[in-house]
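Put briefly, the fold is written as integer tokens. The lines below illustrate.
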Amino acid sequence: MANTGVNAGNIFHEKPSFDNKVKIASINKLRLNIKRIRTILLPLILMAFAGCSSSPEQKILPPYQLHFDAQPNVNDSAPLKIRVMLLKSKEEFMSADFFALQGDTKAVLGDKWVNVDQFFLLPAQKSHFLREKNVPEASYIGILAEYKQLNGKRWRISFPVPEPEEPAFYQFWASSPDELNIDIQVTANGLALDHQYK
């Protein structure tokens, strides 16, 4: 048998060259970096999914004050009953009959009705203030004035629940008001809303 001059043992025990060492080091470093990236990305991905699945945070709105400014003798010298209703939508309220709303309001409006407050404006009373909390499920306010004689009077109005205006980006010092004010005129011809809420 011819001698090839190559020792078989040297083939298996030959030390890796410098290039091979660099390649092995690069591969190990890449594996370590991938592991680190996975460790960082996994919690972020889970947080993103959790954020998508959770419901958005409800905006907390400040309370509002209704200011009723009454003319003298708006109801033929009789007390005028005012009803303030919190509504999910205004369509049912605005289309319902006066006497139906005067009766069982909750039955007429169904699930669109949220809450109601009422008070009397006396003949000599010039103004009345009614403070209301912002209820998340209420989107509209409906106001009903039970005039003694309707005669074409505007006996009801509705408008969206007020929200504070966001200050401009350059008004960094500004903050939302602690209370929102709404002015309502009560006249012999009916109810009139301040122009900014129409």
